[in-house]
Design brief:
The protein has 138 residues and is α+β, with helices and mostly antiparallel strands. 51% of the residues lie in helices and 16% in strands. The chain has a two-stranded antiparallel ribbon with strand order 1-2. Strands 3-4 form a two-stranded antiparallel sheet. Strand 1 (56-61) and strand 2 form a beta hairpin. The radius of gyration is 21 Å and the shape is elongated. The two termini are 34 Å apart.
């Protein structure tokens, strides 16, 4: 059974016309989306660290947003990255033991990647709503 898709030329025309409106509305929607991820990442990080969660923030960028973790000075600024590990599954890593010498092993605690996985659909919603609004004209 053949399938017929209609309305592509109308959609293309609306998107071309909506360029400036999309340019104005997408960045705030991206910040809203990033905040959803950041809030979950903070909750995840707070489950194992009293320091990392409070250092998670959302930063607006040209045309979008980023979730950032800005944690302290060296050597502590490495903690968040090391604790995230590969972002997928907890894994063991070795770290120096300060003031005692030697190394100790510890399990990572991914917090940012799981936040994205947990809140993906919710985070897409603000941007999707803007695009839907602009395409439908209302």
């Amino acid at each position: 059974m053949p399938m017929r898709i209609t309305g592509l030329s109308e959609l293309s025309a609306r998107l071309a016309k909506a360029g400036p409106e999309l340019h104005a509305l997408i960045p705030p929607a991206c910040v809203e989306s990033a905040q959803i991820i950041a809030t979950q990442a903070e909750s995840n990080a707070n489950s194992f660290s009293s320091k990392i969660g409070s250092q998670i923030s959302v930063v607006a960028t040209e045309g979008g947003a980023q979730v950032r973790v800005a944690y302290g000075e060296y050597p502590h600024r490495l903690e968040a990255r090391v604790m995230e590990g590969d972002g997928q599954a907890p894994s063991e890593f070795a770290h120096p033991v300060f003031n005692q010498g030697g190394f100790a092993t510890q399990m990572s605690h991914p917090f940012l990647e799981p936040a994205l996985d947990e809140k993906r659909e919710e985070a897409i919603a603000p941007v999707a709503a803007v695009v839907r609004h602009v395409i439908t004209g209302g």
